[in-house]
């Protein structure tokens, strides 16, 4: 098996497993945040504005973590800088 | 075993295991969010509108994580950019 | 062992294990959602309509995750696009 | 060992382990749903109808997940489409 | 080692381990359901009828999952359809 | 090592490990059910009859799961139908 | 290494590990049952008779699971029926 | 390495690991039972007799499980019946 | 396989798995912090300012941990200082 | 490597790991028992005598489990009966 | 494969996995601390000063642990003192 | 590699890992006991004497378990009786 | 591969993984301590002094554990005493 | 690879991993103890003396466990008595 095949195989498998593990944490965190927002809405319906604002900021922060994960994986799949060392 | 066979095998197995692990987190998160929405409905039936809106936004955010996972897997199955290095 | 045998074996085993793991998360999420719907019904019987509507939307969203998993597995079992590279 | 033997062995073992893991999630989910239904019955005996209806819909949804798992395993055991590639 | 020996060995070990894992989920689910039924009985002794009916339906649904598992294992032990490919 | 030795070894080890794992779930479920029955008795001593009846039905259902496990193991130890393929 | 040695070794190790795992579930279940019985006694000292009866029946049922495990292990250690196939 | 050495090694290691795992369950169960007995004593000091009696019966039942484990291990260490097959 | 290939493969796989594991902790921590902020908002709507300030400082601190992880991975992918030892 | 060396090595490693795992359960159980005794003391200072008696009996029972583990390990280290088969 | 390559590979992989595991604990700890600070703010808005001071000291202490981890990894990546033994 | 080297290596590694695992249980148990003692002190400051006495007896019992572990490891490190079989 | 290379590789990998695991416990402990300090502040703002003093002593004690870990790792990285045996 | 190298490598890796695992338990225990001390302070500020005394004794006891671990590791790193068997 030549070298580039091994790297293609390794990158592909790692990308799929990596995104599967990488969305686990953000998903649970979002679930917890949304769940608390709904409870807060049920307890203080009149402060819906500030609850929604806090929730959106929070979801954006958590989403950013999933995006880090996605970006690294897309870099590996589409434009792995390390490949420059073996493809001349 | 030639090279392309190994990549086909690895991609296929990784895709199936990856989607199976990747829906775990979003599923649990959705379960938690829906469960809180139902509790909120039972406590504040009159604020159903804002509860439903928050729930839908939340479910869409969580779904987006599962979609990231699905997209990476579909890219790997149908149009893996790394294959360009070994199929000329 | 020739190449196609290995791919058939890998795809079959991965499909079975994948669906087994893939229904775990949605099942637990549905259990949680239904459980909360029943508690909500017991606390607010008069708002049965909105509880049922929310529950159905939620179950459909969770089911969609299990369907993603099922679809990938059916693609792998019946029409794996990657097989085009090794069966001419 | 010839090829078909390996596939028979792999499919058989995967089918048994797959169904064993696959019923775990639905079983726990059903247990949770039934448990909540019984608590709801104890708290609101007069709304038995709507509780039972919700419970039945919920159990059917959860059962559907176990059925997905069973169907994939029966396909693998009785009519694996991938076998067409190696049995001519 | 000839082929049929390996399949006999694999099927036997998988059957025993499979049934051991397969009863875990249903057992825990039944324990939870019965436990809730007893709590419901202690809280609402007068609605014993509807509690028992719900419990029986629930236990039957959970038992069905264990039966799926048992059926697959009995098929593998007594009449594995895949054996037709190697015993002529 | 000839074939029958391997099958004897595999069946023996699997039987012992299988029964050890297989009683885990039913044992925990019984513990939960008995524990709830005792709590129910302490809260509603006068409804002892219906509590005991529910408990016995529940324990019998859980015991049935352990029996499934025991039966498969006894079949494997005493009268494994698959042995017919290798002992003529 | 001849065949009977391997079976003796496998059976001995499996027996010891099997009983160690096999008492785990029943022990935890008994602990839970006894703990609930003591709490019930502290809450309803006058219904000691029915609590003790329920506890004894429960402990006997749980003990039966540990006995299943012990019986299989004693069969394997003292009179393994499968040995008839290799010792003539 | 001759055969008896392997069996001595396997039995010794299994005995030590087996007793270490085997006391885990009974220890946790005893801890739970004693803890509940102390709580019961603090809530109902006047029913000390029946609490102590129940506790002693419970501890004896749990101890019996640890004894099963110890007995199997002592049989393996001092008088393994399976050794008769290889030491003539 | 020459040396640089192995390092490219190892770095790529480690980067993907590393970012996937590395966002798990910060995601759960953010979820917990946002959830508490929403509960605090629901209990004390008038102190929204100080709640939001504390939340932002907290999220920034947690984000910094994810950034450490991201930075190490980007260093490894784009400018691994250790490569200087093998590429002259 | 001759035989006795392997047995010395195996016994030594197993003894150390065995005692480390074997004290885990009893330690947690003691912690739970002592913790409940202290809570009971804080709630019913006047029944100190019976609390202390129950605690001592309980700690002795749990200690007995750790002693079983220690005894088996000391037997293995100082006077392993199985060594008689290989040292003449 | 020559020696320095192996060390570069090992250090790179360990650095990435190490930072990913190393931020897990501090992240969860920060999440817990911030969450408690927000709850404390909601309960005692007037003592915001002392709450913020305690929180900052706490976050700094937890951050120090993540910094230990980062420092060791940067030492390994940029200036591993052990390399002096093999690069002359 | 000669025999004594292997035993030195095995004993050293086992001793370090053994003490690390062996202090886990006692540490958690002590933490639980001390924590309960502090809660008891806060609830019943006037019964400090009997609380402290019970705590000291409990800590001594738990410490004894850690000492068992330490003693076995010191025996293995300084005066392993099994070494007599290989060093004449 | 010569000897010193293996030791450099092993020490480097162990150091990075060791610090990553070693900060896990202290981080969680600090999180718990700070969280309780903040709750205590919210409940008893007037006893801030003694709360802060207790917290600082506690954080110092926990930090000492992380320092033990850091010190052993720095010894291994910078001045491993065992290296004296192989570098003359 | 000669013998002393292997022992140096094994001891170094075991020491680092050992201290990392060994501080986990004491750290969690300290966290729990300090947390309870702070809660006790918040509930009974006037009994600060006896709370602090109990906490210090408890922390010292837990620290002793971490010290056991540290001592064994320092013995292994600096003055391993078993080395006398291979270095003459």
Automatic annotation (TrEMBL), chains A, B, C, D, E, F, G, H, I, J, K, L, M, N:
Keywords: ATP synthesis, Cell membrane, CF(0), Hydrogen ion transport, Ion transport, Lipid-binding, Membrane, Transmembrane, Transmembrane helix, Transport. The chain crosses the membrane at residues 6-30, 51-78. F(1)F(0) ATP synthase produces ATP from ADP in the presence of a proton or sodium gradient. F-type ATPases consist of two structural domains, F(1) containing the extramembraneous catalytic core and F(0) containing the membrane proton channel, linked together by a central stalk and a peripheral stalk. During catalysis, ATP synthesis in the catalytic domain of F(1) is coupled via a rotary mechanism of the central stalk subunits to proton translocation. Key component of the F(0) channel; it plays a direct role in translocation across the membrane. A homomeric c-ring of between 10-14 subunits forms the central stalk rotor element with the F(1) delta and epsilon subunits. It comes from the Bacteria. The keyword Transmembrane helix applies. This is ATP synthase subunit c. It comes from Methyloprofundus sedimenti. PROSITE patterns: ATPASE_C. It is found in: Cell membrane; Membrane. Residues 14-75 form the V-ATPase proteolipid subunit C-like domain.
């Amino acid at each position: 098996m030549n070298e580039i095949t091994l790297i293609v195989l390794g990158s592909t498998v790692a990308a799929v497993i990596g995104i599967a593990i990488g969305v686990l944490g953000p998903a649970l965190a979002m679930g917890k945040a949304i769940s608390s927002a709904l409870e807060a809405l049920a307890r203080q319906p009149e402060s819906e504005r500030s609850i929604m604002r806090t929730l959106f900021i929070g979801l954006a922060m958590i989403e950013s973590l999933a995006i880090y994960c996605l970006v690294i994986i897309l870099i590996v799949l589409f434009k792995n800088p390390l490949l420059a060392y073996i493809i001349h």
